[in-house]
Design a protein that fits this description.
57% of the residues lie in helices and 5% in strands. The chain is mainly α. It has three domains: 47 residues; 227 residues, no CATH class; 33 residues, no CATH class.
């Protein structure tokens, strides 16, 4: 029987055998440890990229996290909130983590409505955070330009964090840098984001949307952050991004629009609208998205054609996020006039229906 210890001793007895054996063992350890460290580093990078905590300084209403396993549960939840399409001013602050099972099997109209209602609150919340960042910067820069007015160091520190987040370099005391930053820190109209998500994800039915929460066709060259498209299996350098949840996908899309070079025309159009104090026009803004897809102007035209069908009432820009509990109280207030029923009991019933719908 072969004795490994005896083999090692015989190697040691030979000239240089011990040194070579140690070198081989060190190489073996390195081969085992380095890949583990590499994957650990990538895992940390992935977790930071797909689930960056929201900055509470500029956050809006807290979204209630919902795990809807199927379309029946999600439909019942929206019905309990009185959430219809198109929405009537108030939108429940709901964060649906993943698109529900069975979305592809729904009739076309129901599928589209459920997709839009699921995505809208998340887009509104992300835009609200950007709006608060923008207002903070506008007030800060105005205060700095005012004679005799001192700006707190904490405010400058927050502004520098925003500057780094939006990939702008330079001193914020310079007017050119301030203008460049404000050009990036701005919202994307909800209807335009909805149209792009619907087109890129096939109304939430694509493999990348269902398995990777990628609703906007985001790409990456990192194989550990993406999925391989079936049409490009021979090209291992391109992958479709994978996100931890829908909210991460929305944030990544907004950051891409506001920071990446191909979308500079979009930001220039938006800046001109801000300069003349005009409302953001989604149809005109879409003209700056010709580099979003290889289809170029055909992509722009397809998005522009979708816009009127999504917002027939033309009021999606005037919606407000409302806490689910506040919305439940409003529902109960309307139903509480039923004779012989106490409002308190109706409140409990409404909350049970909202948070624990029948599957």
């Amino acid at each position: 029987m072969h004795d490994p210890n005896q083999s090692f001793i015989s190697c040691v007895r030979r000239g240089g055998g011990l040194r070579e054996s140690l070198r081989e063992r060190l190489i073996l350890v390195a081969l085992l440890v380095l890949p583990a460290f590499f994957f650990w580093h990538l895992a940390i990078d992935w977790s930071h990229s797909v689930s960056i905590p929201q900055d509470r300084t500029f956050a809006g209403p807290t979204l209630d996290s919902i795990h809807a396993q199927n379309v029946k549960t999600l439909t019942a939840l929206y019905a309990a909130y009185g959430y219809h399409w198109p929405p009537h001013r108030l939108v429940p602050a709901i964060d649906v983590n993943h698109l529900p099972e069975g979305l592809s099997a729904l009739p076309v109209h129901q599928k589209k409505v459920l997709f839009l209602k699921t995505l809208l609150p998340i887009i509104l919340a992300a835009n609200q955070k950007i709006s608060r960042e923008r207002r903070f910067l506008i007030r800060l820069f105005a205060a700095y330009r005012r004679p005799g007015r001192k700006v707190q160091p904490k405010s400058w520190a927050l502004a520098r964090e925003i500057e780094a987040q939006y990939r702008v370099s330079g001193s914020l005391t310079q007017s050119a840098v301030q203008a460049r930053l404000l050009k990036r820190v701005d919202v994307v109209p909800a209807i335009l984001a909805l149209a792009q998500a619907a087109k890129e994800s096939g109304w939430g039915t694509s493999r990348f949307a269902l398995r990777g929460n990628d609703l906007f066709g985001m790409w990456t060259d990192n194989p550990f952050l993406g999925m391989v498209p079936r049409a490009l299996r021979g090209d291992p350098t391109h992958f479709v991004r994978v996100f931890a949840n829908i909210r991460s996908s929305v944030r990544h899309y907004l950051k891409a629009i506001n920071t990446r070079r191909p979308f500079a025309p979009f930001r220039a159009i938006r800046a001109r609208m801000r300069l003349v104090r005009a409302p953001l026009n989604p149809e005109l803004l879409a003209q700056g998205l010709d580099l979003y897809s290889q289809q170029g102007q055909d992509y722009v035209l397809s998005i522009q054609q979708m816009l009127p069908t999504l917002d027939r009432s033309a009021h999606l820009g005037r919606l407000a996020l409302v806490s689910p509990r506040v919305l439940a109280d409003l529902i109960v207030e309307k139903r509480g006039r039923i004779i012989g029923t106490k409002p308190a009991s109706l409140t409990r019933v409404a909350m049970v229906r909202i948070h624990h719908p029948k599957s």
